[in-house]
Amino acid sequence: MYSSTILLVQPEIKSSGPLRTRLEGKGYTVVEASDTQTAMSIVNCSQIGLVVTELYLPVGESRCLAQDIGKSPGLRCTKVLAYTTHGKRRDRQWARRIGADGYVITRSGEERFLEVVDHLMETPSTPRRTVQASRAPLRESGGERL
Predict the structure, then answer these.
(1) What is the domain-level CATH number for residue 84?
(2) Rounded distance, CA 61 to CA 141, Å?
(3) Among 23, 68, 79, 103, which has the minimal tally of Cβ within 10 Å of its Cβ?
(4) Any domain includes 42
(5) Global pTM value
(6) Are 54 and 12 in contact (CB under 8 A)?
(7) Does any domain span residue 64?
C-alpha cells in the first residue's frame, strides 16, 4: 500500500522546521518523532511511506532504528533515509551498516534532498535484507541502493 506520509526523526523537533517545510512543500504529509522509541511506535501504528532520520541521534538510538525496522516482519518494506550535514566518508559507511535504504547530505542542497526523497517514495518497496547481508554500496549522487 502506498503512503505519502513521511516520518521525520530528529532529536530536537524544533530544529526540524526546514526539512518539514521542504517535505510538506512537495505534498508529503509529515509526522515527527524525537527518538527511536517514539519513531517505532509511530511506524507500528501508521502507514508510513518513508522514515527520514538524522544519522547521528543520541547514542544508541539511530544505531537501532533502521535495524529494528528491518527486523520486524510487518515493517521490512518500510524505507529508511539517513541524512547528515557532515558528509564524511564514514557517514555513508555507517548509513549502510545500520541498514538505511538511502543516505543524503542535507547541505548539498534542497533540490538534492528532495530528489532522493522522491526517488525512494516512488520506488516500489521490497523487503529489507538483514544488515549482515546488506552490503550493497550506496550511490554517491543519489543515495539509493544500487
Answers:
(1) 3.40.50.2300
(2) 26
(3) 68
(4) yes
(5) 0.78
(6) no
(7) yes
pLDDT digits (tens, 9 = 90+) for 11-38: 776 556 788 898 999 999 999 988 888 8
Amino acid at 4: S
Q: Which residues pair with 82 in a beta bridge?
A: 53, 103
Please indicate, yes or no, if residue 34 is contained in any of the structural domains: yes
Amino acid at 104: V
Query: For every residue of 75-131, which 3-state class applies, written as one string?
Result: CCCCEEEEEECCCCHHHHHHHHHCCCCEEEEHHHCHHHHHHHHHHHHHCCCCCCCCC
Q: How many CB atoms lie within 10 A of CB 129?
A: 14
* 141 within a domain of the structure (yes/no): no
